[in-house]
Amino acid sequence: MTKPIKLTNRAAYQRFVDRYDTFLLDCDGVIWSSNTVIPGVLQVITYFRKKGKQLLFVTNNSTKSRAGNLKKLRSFGLEASEEEIFSSSYTAAYYLRHIIDFPKEKKVYIIGESGIEDELNMMGIKNTKADADNGPIQNWDFADITPDPEIGAVLCGFDTFINYRKIAKAFLYLRTDPDCLFLLTNDDTTFPAIGTVFPGAGSLSSPLIIALNRKPDRVMGKPNKPMLDCIVDKYRLNVERTCMIGDRLDTDIQFGINGGIATLLVLTGISTEKEILAEGAPILPDYYVDSLSNFAEIIELEN
Ligand SMILES: O=C(O)[C@H](O)[C@H](O)COP(=O)(O)O
Ligand SMILES: [Mg+2]
């Protein structure tokens, strides 16, 4: 495998920017770390816009809908449109409506936050509301955990309100109805926040996988196909002139590789330089850089 190129000077930054017309931008670990914007990144994204680059925001974070992500981008002063945003919650709703045509009389049981519920509602897909089971089981009372034939799919995403009740209900729906779909918005094992990492969506759905001894039927987010289909259905990407920019090898960079597009790893999130320089590293980006903010050097040149 070709050794990744580290971008470290103005000439390299300029060549890279001139080489691509479309950037698929990951969010957590590239633009922000939970609610804090990564220093120096905003001006670079604004500069890409000024240079007429097409920007698509491609996030595995299912907690927000496209509208929720747009609000967050704008809260940092970044202009964008919902059309440019692809979240794993949107991809899940898109997949259920446009790829498998989920039965209208059936419901989706959500383990996740409002982003999933909002996107399912916008696609007209019945669901059990994200906060329906945020309360714990009281006094070992399992009486209200019963099979529900209306549940046609269990959809798991990132859920900071995860609890035993949700896992138990999802388990029962999947165990009692073999036709009930088991779907994940994404399976990132960790989540980057406040300069460190915490358990990710993939860790939160693992109790179900273990208890059921069953793998999910489909995972929506990067590096998986539903997210790529969702983007390609909306945008005719010129893969030759497109680059995926991300902080995680097994999601962002693998997604680029699967899509036949170039990849740039930034070291402000999950994956490290040590991982890509290791002998026999399984996933390698084409390029890497300490931070997206490094490109600010070429902005100064122009001013
Ligand atoms: O656990 C998760 O859901 C992920 O860590 C997180 O959401 C990744 O988001 P992204 O980096 O794709 O924006
Ligand atoms: Mg990320």
Automatic annotation (TrEMBL):
Its EC number is 3.1.3.41. Its cofactor is Mg(2+). Substrate binds at K222. It is an enzyme of class 3 (hydrolase). It holds the Pfam family Hydrolase_6. The keyword Hydrolase applies. Coiled coil: none annotated. Keywords: Hydrolase, Magnesium, Metal-binding. Mg(2+) binds at D26, D28, D247. It catalyses: 4-nitrophenyl phosphate + H2O = 4-nitrophenol + phosphate + H(+). The keyword Mitochondrion does not apply. The active site is at D26 (nucleophile), D28 (proton donor). Divalent metal ions. Mg(2+) is the most effective. This is 4-nitrophenylphosphatase. The lineage of its organism: Eukaryota, Fungi, Fungi incertae sedis, Mucoromycota, Glomeromycotina.
